[in-house]
Specification:
With about 290 residues, the chain is of the alpha/beta class. It is built from eleven helices and nine strands.
Length: about 290
């Protein structure tokens, strides 16, 4: 999943900076595969912004990926996946977004058998329509934790399409907006992790969770929580308790952008506990270099 494009270049895409709200207008332009990445749909005139001088209709995101998916699914003997079936599978997976994979729910939603559904998910992962983030398996306490992988969409534009979101206004009015942002950041971090860096997530049955756990070849462990927020940040105490349970070398709290009026108090509170408060871009630069520590 390593990508030759420099992380700094990856995040030098257009940003719209407004005085009263964080930087949220961001789009990925990685093109390491047959298709372009379209993460966040924030272009004007119901388009997905792909390149500083290029706009592509949102339907092209679906058309491009549909062709790839159908060509892979056609290799499975006896399977017939039309436009509607593939969209149903992807929409079912989007309902399970950022959560431990629930095969029973997916079987009910798609009406597919267990083996067939597993094959579809593995195929989508192989062609990197999906990423699977494994669960952290080491026991931390007496509380049980989930073992199933967490699924994320490599292209958030595809996620938006299956929900019928075709404009930035529709995105911000949709209940999936926060998950979409977290998905975008996780997909970026996983893409740019060095192959030697291992990554996991953690979620216990009592609700404690960490969005991302990274382990370097040198034995460093970083824990990261992401927070999509448009107003004042509040560092939640249970974040800190969960982070401490992992005995990490560094702890991070990541959000859309730095706004001094918003962050000062929260940043001081978090740093007092040893938690580093960073924007997603700053965190990305650190992740790209983590294999050296």
């Amino acid at each position: 999943m390593n990508n030759p494009i420099n992380f700094e270049e990856h995040f030098k895409i257009r940003e719209f900076i407004e005085a009263k709200k964080p930087v949220l207008h961001y789009e990925d332009v990685t093109s390491s595969h047959k298709y372009m990445d379209r993460f966040w749909l924030l272009g004007p005139n119901k388009t997905a912004w792909v390149h500083p001088n290029e706009y592509v209709a949102i339907e092209e995101i679906w058309d491009t990926n549909l062709e790839i998916i159908q060509s892979i699914f056609a290799k499975r003997p006896g399977s017939h996946h039309n436009h509607r079936t593939i969209k149903t599978i992807l929409k079912g997976l989007s309902h399970n977004l950022l959560e431990p994979l629930n095969i029973s729910y997916m079987m009910r939603y798609t009406s597919l058998g267990h083996k067939h559904l597993r094959w579809c998910i593995d195929a989508l992962t192989e062609i990197e329509i999906l990423y699977q983030i494994p669960a952290f398996s080491a026991p931390l306490s007496s509380v049980r934790s989930h073992k199933a992988p967490k699924l994320i969409f490599r292209q958030t534009g595809l996620l938006h399409y299956v929900h019928g979101i075709k404009s930035s206004e529709a995105l911000f009015d949709h209940p999936i907006v926060a998950k979409s942002w977290v998905n975008m950041i996780l997909a970026s971090y996983v893409t740019f992790c060095d192959p030697s860096v291992r990554y996991f997530y953690y979620k216990s049955y009592n609700g404690s969770y960490l969005d991302l756990i990274l382990e370097s070849p040198g034995g460093q462990r970083w824990v990261i929580n992401l927070d999509f927020c448009l107003g004042f940040l509040k560092f939640r105490k249970h974040y800190y308790r969960t982070m401490q349970n992992f005995q990490p070398d560094r702890m991070f709290y990541v959000f859309p952008s730095i706004n001094p009026a918003i962050v000062t108090k929260t940043q001081a509170e978090a740093l007092f506990r040893g938690v580093e408060v960073l924007t997603y871009r700053e965190m990305g630069r650190l992740i790209q270099m983590m294999h050296r520590v």
